[in-house]
Design brief:
422 residues; 13 helices; globular
Length: 422
């Protein structure tokens, strides 16, 4: 499957030159087939062959899905978030990352206003994903209980864990760690060594998983949450610690790349009477196929939701002064562009280790994971150059081919059975 790409064009905002005319003319509706124009951007959407194109000036970009300025937060979730949640429950890892310049609507699309703390029609992808995960888990457990007439926990259990990290000035920080109130002591140092011999005793990074292409550092917090509200509380707490700054482009510009990882663990038993033949049941008796005595299976999947800091023009954002965080942001995005191009061309060497960001995204970009890019662009004429860069990046990303596979379950040996084996 290809790395899927969705383009979202934000509406005009007060600091855009075209804002007054935009209010007078009204917003075009992107939900129907046809053509619409927003500032410097024009789009042609076809419902017949699913082919859509978006143009800036004389440059045209073909995409499978384009969401215009009148698109809602729900539209974004239905196209980008819900399919990944469905795959998560089917045993497929997922990743959604928002890419675009500063002020293009990435954080708004991912979280919504107030960091997504209160659910509303403006809630972003992350709050809606949280709701969808716990709703689906409850529905599946209720379905088991209805079919078997027994306590669902006996046959099917879900556990959700969450981790939240950021890369700020090319360093990795844990946004959820509470052991030390000094934020700067929460740095996770990336090791330059390869292989499984990495040791955290020296403050080096070791990834979770069977090898170092795991998506999480071992030392980062991994908190169990039991409800949608608990998950959003943890996310809000981490978001408050994320680095932001008022710039010439945006009042609250993200100064770091944030990576939220939701891990779903499913443990279940298959009642043997559902898989036994009639001959076996008549020969041994139905009671011999009790579900509670059947071995338990386990499967872990993860969904990584990434809000990338926006690329920016130093002259516009900081009046030409050098900003260390901005330089680090642009460097991480530059390396990400190299990585995506290398993957699209199927090159033998992919420079994942040239930045902390790409190393953390390695498993999601090249591993067993279904990935989706949300490219956010501005319709303002002043942002035309950055919008073109974003669309070029999205075009290359759409050429990345991935072989994502459903994860097989593993069998768990129960503690009581282990005692009998010893």
């Amino acid at each position: 499957m290809n790395l899927k790409t969705t383009v979202r064009v934000r509406p005009h905002v007060p600091h855009d030159i075209e804002y007054t005319q935009w209010q007078k003319d009204g917003m075009p509706c992107p939900s129907t087939a046809g053509e619409w124009t927003a500032g410097t951007i024009s789009a042609t959407i076809s419902k017949v062959n699913s082919y859509s194109s978006l143009s800036i000036g004389e440059i045209s970009f073909p995409f499978g899905q384009i969401l215009g300025p009148a698109s809602t937060q729900r539209d974004v979730f239905l196209h980008c978030g819900r399919p990944l949640v469905a795959q998560l429950f089917s045993g497929l890892n997922g990743c959604l990352f928002a890419y675009g310049q500063t002020g293009s609507g990435k954080t708004h699309s991912m979280l919504g206003p107030q960091g997504g703390q209160s659910r509303s029609e403006l809630s972003g992808v992350i709050p809606q994903v949280a709701h969808e995960i716990f709703t689906r888990a409850k529905e599946e457990e209720n379905q088991v209980q209805m079919e078997l007439g027994l306590a669902s926990a006996t046959y099917s259990q879900f556990q959700v864990r969450v981790s939240y990290i950021e890369t700020y000035q090319s360093k990795v920080y844990d946004l959820l760690r509470e052991e030390d109130q000094s934020f700067w002591k929460n740095e996770i140092v990336l090791s330059k060594r390869t292989g499984n011999e990495e040791s955290e005793s020296a403050g080096q990074l070791q990834f979770k998983g069977p090898n170092t292409t795991g998506c999480l550092p071992v030392s980062c917090s991994n908190i169990i949450v039991t409800s949608e509200s608990a998950l959003m509380h943890v996310i809000a707490r981490g978001s408050q610690r994320r680095h932001t700054l008022s710039t010439g482009v945006h009042d609250s510009s993200s100064r770091s790349h944030a990576l939220l990882t939701i891990e779903l663990e499913h443990r279940w038993r298959t009642p043997l009477e559902h898989v036994a033949t009639e001959g076996e049941m008549s020969a041994k008796g139905k009671e011999s196929f009790g579900g509670a005595d059947s071995p338990m299976q386990q499967r872990k999947t993860y969904l990584q939701l990434v809000d990338l800091a926006g690329s920016e023009d130093t002259n516009r954002a900081h009046s030409g002064s050098v900003d260390e965080a901005g330089c680090a942001i642009n460097h991480g995005l530059l390396v990400l562009g190299r990585v995506v191009r290398a993957l699209a061309k199927n090159e033998s060497h992919v420079p994942f280790r040239e930045s902390a960001l790409t190393r953390l995204l390695q498993r999601s970009l090249e591993g067993n994971c279904s990935s989706h890019l949300l490219a956010c662009v501005s319709p303002a004429s002043l942002d035309q150059a950055e919008s073109i860069r974003t669309l070029r990046f999205a075009t290359v990303a759409n050429q990345v081919w991935k072989r994502a596979r459903v994860k097989n379950c593993c069998w768990l040996v129960l503690y009581e059975e282990m005692k009998l084996m010893t």
